[in-house]
Sequence to fold (382 residues):
Amino acid sequence: MASYNLFDRDFNPVLCEEKSCALKVTLNRPRKLNCLTFEMVSQIHVAMRTYENDAKVNLVIVKGKGKAFCAGGDVTRVVLYILAGHWTFAASFYRRQLMLDYLLATYKKPLVFLINGIVMGGGAGLSMNGMFRIVTENTVFAMPEVLIGHFPDVGASYFLSRLPGYYGEYLGLTGARINGVEMLACGLATHFVLSKDLQQLENALCELVSSDALTISKLINKFIYSGQTNQDNFHERLETINKCFCKETVEEILLSLEEMNSGADKWIVEAISSLKSASPTSLKIGLRSIREGRKQTLELCIAREYIVCSHVVRGTVTNDFFEGARALLFEKDKKPKWEPSQLCRVSEEMLDKFSAELDDEDFKCLQLPARSSPSTEARAKL
Fold:
């Protein structure tokens, strides 16, 4: 296994700066694509709680340094902490991360996420429930958890399930990468701004003396790219995606894609390949989670996902998470040996175990504080 120092600490992995009427939060771990650690999540959580009731701050800007906004949680570090100690190290990290995601989703002040670059996994959890999600020509979004034996978590069962048709199932089960234009088309993003204009937009936001969502939206609209953004790919694919990913089971989804596959559509070929490469257990957990999320509030989604996450990192039902980490992150042979290895061997009984509270004295359900979400009326005005 590759060497990795558990005691490595990044210098100032999160930068917080008050500028005029705004707070700027910068993820500052560019060499690791701003992957989140427990320390980073804790720092952001403390800062956001501190400034939520600060009258001097009208809005909060969140961005990443380098070529990524945030490529997710630092899975390598999480796995090594488990191997060096106890599964609850990982559970504590996920608990803290989910609590931060919930805080940001229900934040009293407007949050503006400048998503210039890679946004995956935990980075999506930070930003996708925010009011303003600004993307650029450099943005790349993906939820690739099923490919490492995990499942789309960090509130993904909420925000993916609310995309048009069954687009959320497509993204969550295949780990497909989409660009900023496609994010705007499907609703994952609220605005598209060229990267060269981000600094000017950021400066203007800092000088804004209003915390009114409509006023902020009007300001951002002055910077949106007015040229052509080709959204044909999204609309052309959605009809086929809906036909295939509306099926009740992963097996039926895969069969439907194979029946549609003529070899001419690269995205279908890639979707089939991804489904066949991913952990069968993760695929079935992911599909069930997104389907359940479509009927639940964000609070219920996050609390449920924490239970499933705890089973995953404890290895209650399968060790696919550790096998995926071995094959893709440590030894990097890219040949995970999933167990069970076939979709047909993943039973409903196995899936039910992931939804049950853990029979472990170290496990506690995630209790989220009562908070009111940003008003539907405010979002509707944007």
Remarks:
- The first helix runs from residue 38 to 51.
- The chain has a mean pLDDT of 92.
